[in-house]
Design goal:
Number of helices: 1
Distance between the termini: 104 Å
Number of domains: 1
Strand content: 15-25%
Shape: rod-shaped
Structural class: alpha+beta
Largest sheet: 2 strands, antiparallel
Radius of gyration: 39 Å
Strand order of the largest sheet: 1-2
Length: 85
């Protein structure tokens, strides 16, 4: 950290003083970066759970449809057997 003081004198005898203060750069970006990262993780988790919930609902619908097809096939089989009797 270095401070500089510059004095300039005008031809009429007046002086002007300029002080330059050199400070270390601030390094507070870690907390902000952590918050952004946490927000991204929360958003990604939200979308992942939405996808999994939709996949589970889709699997349930497919299972239900397969069960209905199985029941219909059983009914057709029963009807065919009664027709033969």
């Amino acid at each position: 950290m270095a401070d500089e003081i510059h004095e300039t004198r005008a031809p009429d005898g007046t002086t002007h003083t300029t002080t330059i203060i050199d400070r270390e750069p601030r390094r507070g970006g870690g907390m902000g970066f952590g918050l952004v990262l946490l927000a991204l993780i929360v958003v990604a988790a939200f979308f992942a759970f939405q996808f999994l919930a939709n996949d589970k609902a889709e699997s349930g619908a497919i299972t239900e449809a397969a069960q209905k097809v199985g029941n219909a096939a059983e009914n057709v089989g029963d009807a065919a057997q009664k027709a033969v009797e």
